[in-house]
Amino acid sequence: MPDVPVEKEPHDTSRVTEVLSAAVTALGGQERAGQVQMAQAVSTAMHDGRHLLVQAGTGTGKSLAYLVPSLLHGQRVVVATATLALQHQLVERDIPRLVEAVGDRLDASYAVLKGRSNYACLHRIREGVPDDQGVLVDVPEGTMGAEVLKLRAWAEEEVENGGTGERDNAPRHNDRLWRQVSVNHRECLGAARCAFAAECFAERAKEKAHKSHLIVTNHSLLAIDAIEGVPMIPDYDVVVIDEAHELTARVTQAATDELAVNDVERAARRANKYVADRGGANSPADDLADAADALADALAMTPPGRIDQRTDQLSDALVLVRDAARALASAFGKEEGGDVDAARTQAKGMAQEVFATAERMAAGKDSDVMWLNEARDRIPARLAIAPLQVWGQMRDRLLTDKTVVFTSATLMLGGDFNTVAGSVGLKPSERIDTGAPEVEAEGALPWQGLDVGSPFDYGRQGILYVARHLPPPGRDGLGKAQLDEIVELIDAAEGRTLGLFSSRRAAETAAEAVRERLPHLTTLAQGEAQLPELARQFVEDPHTILFGTLSLWQGLDVPGETCQLVLIDRIPFPRPDDPLMSARQRAADKAGGNGFMQVAATHAALLLAQGAGRLIRTTTDRGVVAVLDPRLATARYGGFLKASLPPMWTTTDPQVVRKALTRLAGGSGQ
After folding, report:
1. DSSP per residue, 521-557
2. How many structural domains compose the chain?
3. Same domain (yes/no): 414, 467
4. Same domain, 622 and 650
5. pLDDT tens readout for residues 588-638
6. How would you class 132 by CB atoms within 10 Å of its CB: exposed for 0-12, middle for 13-18, buried for 19 or more?
7. What's the mean pLDDT when you consider all of the chain?
């Protein structure tokens, strides 16, 4: 007789409400209905073991709304973020303040967990770094050597002071410098073999995580642990995924492998001293070097872009690299004696990495997409391979085993949750709050969608202006009509403008035009300085314009009169030649769907919503989001895109908008 579903008693959320209220009061905040509703829903989802998608607009206080039920939950909870900025906010501000306020009412133990390369490696610092021939060298010459010494001194201070040794806390440095004091997971000797394991920052972080109730990590590490199956995180019951709108992109990124000729050559050089004396004409390292030559010849004959049909030459070269790298890794054998050779471990790890990537590329599975990135700016041509989709892996390897709470200010695209839910592996037919038919079906993963709104009155605080009178954007970038519109809007706003552009070229063209025609204003363009410095200048002077591309669409938080106009030059569809997006669009069409709407329009809706979200950051902010692409008003897909945006008052009249911006500028007291 089949099991009859038993209706659970309603979950008592009074404790989470009580602790949340105490925390908000202690922190000097005010109760927000959306925050309370979200905290109760998160607590219920954790208790019932059902997945939850909760959209919480900017200003809701969603961090507290999931941290309180997470710390009250009976088992370990993981919180995964997409950006370092949010991770810092949680670890440096939100969690410590919450623990200080109500720590006696809950299990307040927490830890931060990152990939191994994010921590300084004491073995590398104290024993030296292998050079390109695998010889341990102490410190590089010149200025770089001085910078490395600073990082080493900082790491030793971290040991003495009980610090974490995390890269984010290190003195200023670049990627090249950090590689001199860190290792990845393949290069690591392992706790059992390393003389410095007792002091190891990465091992101490793992140990603390094992003792903690709450673990804060990132999307990539979560993907490696849950989806790639590499154990990185102690066992947990629930994961809260903040910035969940970025999850599929981060999981895809974590599952993407790359291979360049110089990767293969370097692995061969590093291994040579350990496997050279093996008799015969060629050592395994020589064979891998020969395979690198074959790969170089094949790539020279391969046009950049997506590779749908591999040539025999490319297929044969990948097989050669795969087989040679496998033989080379095997040739290392086991280390003899008690001494640990870090350079040898690293050389073997490089060979294993080349083998794993070449093996995946040589397999040529339909579930993967492969493409060639052309050489540019001293970066060699690189083959890349990524999964065609990730929702299947997320469903099978994460959602089936764990309870997952997804949250973001942007989860409803086109007015509902179905698009985002589908992208992470949940089916619309499994949604429990809509009476869907498959909720109790075998293998079903029930989920709920909840929009707790926003404390902002978008209809009164913001205007969405679509420049319907402009010509559609063309391939040649910004034309005279668009530049005139940009200048007129910025002039009315007297600066106070964040310009979000689809390309660096468009941002630079606009900046040049505004500097020429509005010289009394300060115009900044992304790339002219580091982003934190540009943001600081932008905040300090309201009569400033900041133009940039993708990282500004999602990563900038500038409340107040600094930003009263957000300019968007065109609907941010993916580039037609984007290999992965175009492959996904084609696959959706082949499956009988609408690839354009499922892939391109969804991508654009997400970015548009994030971009428009830069405008209203507090209850007192006012301003205009101006989209200079008339297709938002004229195209059939425009309704889907607009339904993904905050519900601002909408107009296509340029006179109305210019007058509104002039009034705002006049009322700013400047």
Report:
1. SEEEETTSS-HHHHHHHHHH-SSEEEEE-HHHHHH--
2. 4
3. no
4. yes
5. 999 999 999 999 999 999 999 999 999 998 889 999 999 999 999 999 999
6. exposed
7. 89
259/354 Cα distance (integer angstroms): 7
CA distance 528 to 512: 13
Q: 304-321: b or e for each residue (b if 16 or more CB lie within 10 Å)?
A: eebbeebeebbebbbbbb
Q: Any idea which residue has 């610092």 for tokens?
A: 125
Q: How far is CA 118 from the centre of its chain?
A: 16
CB 125 within 8 A of CB 155: yes
Residue 243: inside a domain, yes or no? Answer: no
Could you give the CA distance from residue 404 to residue 621 in angstroms, rounded to a whole number? 33
Q: What are phi and psi of 373, to 5 degrees?
A: -90, 125
Same structural domain, 285 and 416: no
The reply to whether 438 falls in a domain is yes
Q: What is the DSSP string of 478-510?
A: --HHHHHHHHHHHHHHTS-EEEE-SSHHHHHHH
Give the model's pLDDT for residue 436.
60
Per-residue confidence (pLDDT) for residue 140, from 0 to 100:
61
DSSP bridge pairs for 455: none
Burial, 669: exposed, middle or buried (Cβ in 10 Å; 0-12, 13-18, 19+)? exposed
- Sheet of strand 403-408, all strands in order from the earlier edge strand to the far edge: 110-112, 214-218, 77-81, 238-241, 403-408, 51-55, 447-451
92/135 same-domain check = no
Rounded to 5°, the CA angle 505-383-394 comes to 90
* Residue 620 located in a structural domain: yes
Write down the pLDDT at residue 513.
96
Query: Is 516 exposed, middle or buried, given 0-12, 13-18 or 19+ CB atoms closer than 10 A?
Result: exposed
Q: Are 192 and 214 in contact (CB under 8 A)?
A: no
Alpha-helix residue ranges (DSSP H) falling in 83-196: 84-88, 95-102, 122-127, 142-161, 175-179
Please report, for the domain that includes residue 29, its CATH number.
3.40.50
Q: What angle do CA 325, 329, 335 make, to 5 degrees?
A: 165
Q: Is 526 in the same domain as 629?
A: yes
Show contacts of 333-341: CB within 8 Å, 24+ apart: 340/189, 340/193, 340/194, 340/195
Structure-block tokens of residue 464: 């969405």
626 and 657 Cβ atoms separated by less than 8 Å: yes
200: containing domain: 117-204
Residue 7 lies in a domain: no
127 with 72, same domain: the answer is: no
**In terms of Cα–Cα distance, which of 387, 395, 401 is closest to 425?**
395
79 by DSSP, 3-state: which?
strand
What the block records as the tokens of 585 is 């669009």
Query: What is the distance between the terminal CA atoms of the chain, rounded to a whole angstrom?
Result: 76
Identify the pLDDT of residue 670.
44
The list of the chain residues with pLDDT below 70 reads 1-9, 129-142, 277-281, 335-340, 434-440, 554-555, 668-670
| β partners of residue 239 | 78, 404
The pLDDT score that the predictor gives to residue 431 is 93
